[in-house]
Design goal:
The protein has a single domain, classed as Orthogonal Bundle (Hydantoin permease). It has 19 helices and no strands.
Length: 452
């Protein structure tokens, strides 16, 4: 690969632009919606510790590997994997990894968009003052009514998918980059405010100790699998999203430093969301383990009671939608980039096809909360099943393969050329991607299927 090989889809204008886009991809519903509710379901502290360990020991090294592979291949994940496989002289089957990613992104986006639709609906609710009573029973009812209404869910899912495809259609620097520039900092400020509100409740200590005091008796194989899967999910790893963003990365940028920043910012946002939410849960006598509705049933209570809550409520849900949007674009970008490269169609057409397919699958997710809620496969609704297959299985498997490929298949001199790190640092990274990351994923899988 030559020094100045560039992606045909364009390139980020600067390191800052890449950081924003990759952080935008990482920070999303995973941090604010999913992390608190799964931490709640699995009993808090111990789960949080396992999750943090997974981010540091598995997520971070794999993120470095994935960005590195993307930058070297400079194409959609499928074609990048083909190029890298040829360059490394590895078995052709490795290029299937790109396919796994494209499919995982499509499956994730189909439900991600439905949940982002909930946030859109809550923007409108916030605007019309629906949270003003601050009463937890009333606020609970708002959520129950929303998910019971198939047409409302479909409507917002359609709006969100259309917005996603619009941004993706505008291309790398025109669409993706502009969309994330101002959102991240503002979201952070509102989270600080919410943490401030949580401090004023008399359950702040209780919330904190739920989140950080480990009780390992609450942890079983499934909890560990979920924590590990979430580390992949929240960092956008294992399916080529970060790989495709890496392929738009100019040559002279430090991959390792950038990865530390992204993982750090992502973790901080998730922990802040948890710190804001659990005190509200306990102060109102709610259950931490109520599932996917958790933030929608708790944060409006804060907005109903706090000074300026009307304004902050609107802002919060608007920002949540934007955080979701900057993630959703990265879920579909690998598929779009591949369609443009291989099907010889315009970016616009690629967006229409990929968008329509995702939208269609999303309908079944929207219905799984109401009219199809009795339809279960292996005891899971369509939403639960898609979430389980992608976050708990496909992403860790994808991440495992990325680690093995970067650690064992790629030529060390190529890796060194991309990473440009001091030798000891490369040695640490190598050890993590060669042994620790793949072995951890493998052991967790063996445990879950009951072999150990
Ligand atoms: N990381 C995002 C979140 O936490 C979701 C996401 C975007 C994602 N791109 C991804 C998850 C790629 C897995 C793979 O909300």
């Amino acid at each position: 690969m030559t020094e100045n090989k560039k992606s045909i889809h364009g390139e980020w204008s600067s390191r800052f632009a890449f950081i924003l886009a990759a952080t935008g991809s990482a920070v999303g519903l995973g941090n604010i919606w999913k992390f608190p509710y799964i931490a709640g379901e699995y009993g808090g502290g111990a789960f949080v510790i396992v999750y943090l360990l997974c981010v540091a020991a598995i997520g971070l090294p794999i993120m470095i590997a994935e960005i590195m592979m993307g930058r070297r291949g400079r194409q959609s994940p499928i074609n990048t994997m083909e190029t890298l496989t040829a360059e490394a002289g590895a078995d052709k089957k490795w290029s299937w990894l790109g396919w796994l990613g494209v499919i995982a992104g499509f499956l994730i986006l189909s439900y991600y968009s439905v949940i982002a639709g909930w946030a859109l609906d809550y923007v409108v609710k916030a605007f019309f003052g629906s949270f003003s009573s601050g009463d937890s029973a009333e606020i609970n009812a708002l959520f129950d009514d929303l998910i019971a209404s198939p047409m409302t869910l479909v409507f917002w899912h359609t709006v969100f998918m259309a917005a996603t495809m619009y941004v993706v259609q505008r291309g790398v620097s025109g669409g993706l980059e502009k969309a994330v520039r101002f959102l991240m900092p503002t979201l952070f400020v509102i989270l600080v405010l919410l943490v401030g509100y949580a401090m004023t409740t008399d359950s702040f200590d209780k919330g904190l100790s739920f989140l950080f005091a480990p009780d390992f008796s609450r942890i079983d194989g499934n909890a560990v699998l979920t924590a590990m899967g979430h580390a992949f999910f929240t960092l956008s790893l294992g399916m080529g999203a970060i790989m495709v963003y890496g392929s738009y990365l100019p040559k002279n940028i430090s991959i390792a430093k950038t990865s530390f920043f992204i993982a750090g910012a992502d973790t901080l946002v998730a922990l802040m969301a948890g710190i804001a939410i659990f005190p509200i849960v306990f102060a109102n006598g709610l259950e931490p383990g109520t599932g996917p509705g958790l933030i929608f049933q708790t944060l409006p209570i804060a907005f109903g009671n706090m000074f300026g809550g009307w304004f902050f409520g609107i802002m919060f849900f608007v920002l949540l939608v934007f955080a979701a949007l900057s993630s959703s674009i990265s879920l579909i970008e690998p598929a779009v980039a591949w369609l443009v490269e291989n099907r010889n169609i315009s970016r616009m057409q690629a967006c229409i096809w990929a968008g329509l397919a995702t939208w269609g699958l999303g309908l079944t997710v929207a219905f799984s909360f109401n009219i199809w809620s009795d339809f279960k496969i292996v005891d899971k609704s369509i939403f639960d099943l898609l979430d389980y297959i992608t976050a708990n299985l496909m992403l860790p498997i994808g991440g495992f393969c990325i680690a093995v490929f970067a650690g064992w298949m790629m030529k060390p001199e190529h890796v060194l050329e991309e990473l440009e790190l001091p030798e000891q640092h490369v040695a640490i990274w190598s050890f993590l991607v060669k042994y620790i990351a793949p072995a951890s994923v493998f052991i967790v899988f063996l445990h879950v299927i009951g072999i150990i």
